[in-house]
Amino acid sequence: MKRAGFEADRFAILLKDLVSGETHEVAPDWDRSALSLRWSADGRVLYTMADDVGQRRLFAVEVGTGRVLPLTNLGTVRGFDAGRNGLVYALDNLGMPRTCSGSIFIRVR
After folding, report:
1. Is residue 2 included in any domain, yes or no?
2. Number of domains in the chain
3. I need a labelling partner for 33 at 20 to 30 A (CA). Which of 7, 9, 76, 84 fits?
4. Residue-by-residue DSSP string for 26-46
5. pTM higher than 0.85 for the full model?
6. pLDDT tens digits, one per residue of 5-51
7. DSSP letters of 67-79?
């Protein structure tokens, strides 16, 4: 948060150059709070969950451009991890058949 204790603020994604000590915000125009972060295997993308219009979605944030891409639509992502070949995530969705709710999905690049 830019101002401590200001609950209307959001959690930004900040990267720090360990050589120069400079810090910059990735995707400063994105109006969501990143919850947990995972790097892609090539280091060009950060994956994160964020609350979005009543859903908890999974997003890909391109580090070089700040472009944010939603990876899921309806439902609540309960957790995720990134690996060499893509992502794995758990998703709850009231619109899914009862046998599918809480399912694990794999998204391969």
Report:
1. no
2. 1
3. 84
4. ESTT--S----EEE-TTSSEE
5. no
6. 666 678 889 999 999 999 999 999 999 999 999 999 999 999 999 99
7. -EEE---SSEEEE
